[in-house]
Amino acid sequence: MPSDLAESWLRGVAANPAAPSDVLLRLLSAQAHATWTILCEERELPAEVVEAVLAHPERLIRRRFARNRHATAEQRGRLADDVDALVRVALASGPRPRLGRVEALPDEILEHLLTVQDDEDKGHMVTADEIRQELETSGQISPAFRVRMLNHPDTELRYWATGLWLWFTPGQRDALLSDPDPVVREAALRQSRLLDPMAMEKELPQQGGHHRGLLLTNYAVSHAVAARCLADRRDLWSLAHNPHTPGEAVTRLARDPDPRVRERVAARADVDPTVLAELGQDQDSTVRTRALLHPMPRTWPERNAIDRIIGHTEGTIGRTAEAIGAVDDVVAEPPTSWYEMCAASTHHLLRRVAASCPRLPEELVHRLADDPDADVRHLLAYNHPLAPPAIVLDAFVAAPGRRAYLLTLPSLPRTGLHHLLDHDDADLRALAAADTGLAQPPLHLLADPEPRVRRAAAANPLLPLDVISSLLDTPEHAEGAAANPGLPAERLHGLLDLGGLPRPATT
Fold first, then answer.
1. Cα 216 from chain centroid?
2. What is the reported pLDDT for 321?
């Protein structure tokens, strides 16, 4: 039996959604090594197979499952105490690919990963601190857990909470500054310097770089620092963006020759109304738009919500949860009522902002689904669970870069796709080739020039069993045919037999 044909069968069986547990369990043998990514990382698994994966001695199998976005957080979380650090770091880094917001790990798993220490008697390919760093940026820590850490009985977690200083309220900061543990108090005091203009001035590097940019964009700015930046014409965009920049510096930045700097001032929540009126008549259209788009009074969360949309197309924005960093999960979002006002706006940019809110009521969802602006409709498709299937399909057609995420949505139509069978775009032909509601099997797509289209056509259960069987013997169709849910379990076992996989011993 040609090895490439047998390997195609194994890969196809690993992806077959109808394959029973006893078939999938055979793929955990060493001879099926090439299928482990498909089996353990790229599909949902029956409970029996999950148990076998979690207990499997092969690190690669457990590591693949640690990244499985189809598995529940509870299932993946059981690897938090795995003997292998590479498995633990895979869990901490989160599911792959990361398609929008991920499910938070259970609290007890987070507590363990954030507090566990390295065993000094062992060498470490990955340290506990490195694993914590991966976890912090993975999106797997819920906002509620971050807040609960402030009062957690474990000192390590309260210490870790000080790193979120900028995002806490004054009362929450005061609680950390008066913590009963001196280590936590010292860490809180160090963090508090970031909102102390004079302390930040002493810490600010003279040379450019990430740390200098971070401080000038987010933290307290002294009058002296602002004056130096203005005199040297350095970091002006950062100053214009920073909520803590002194007011007199903001006024000077509003008249800067760089329109990017003036636009940042026009977006500020604390901009002086007189200055805002001046920017509303700016010679640059981008500056004018930003000044006039967002009525006063404003809030900083509203500014940030608009920032995620304005200046971009829906193809580059996608799902707005992707644009929000893991730490930003604790930042206050504008209330739903503000997004509702945006939905009623005559300005298409504000309606796009509204379409990015997954909390909009159903009535407004239907209104925006009929919006004349295509970006509004597509952003709604990415972000709202009630987006009508028709606009989700439209978004799939319009934005190739967002298709991986859209394929995860239950609202993406999987039937009624006959009109896409002969589309110029291979992704659309592949989607249509898998349509189980077609009047006839998509036989002509078995000869499609694109392999992914041929695989989808060969895996369509509308094909007669004798056709599927014949496709198993052709290299260009074998993988898709082996993934066809129309194959009976015994035939799947037969393919594994031919691929050289052992059958479990009978008792």
1. 27
2. 56
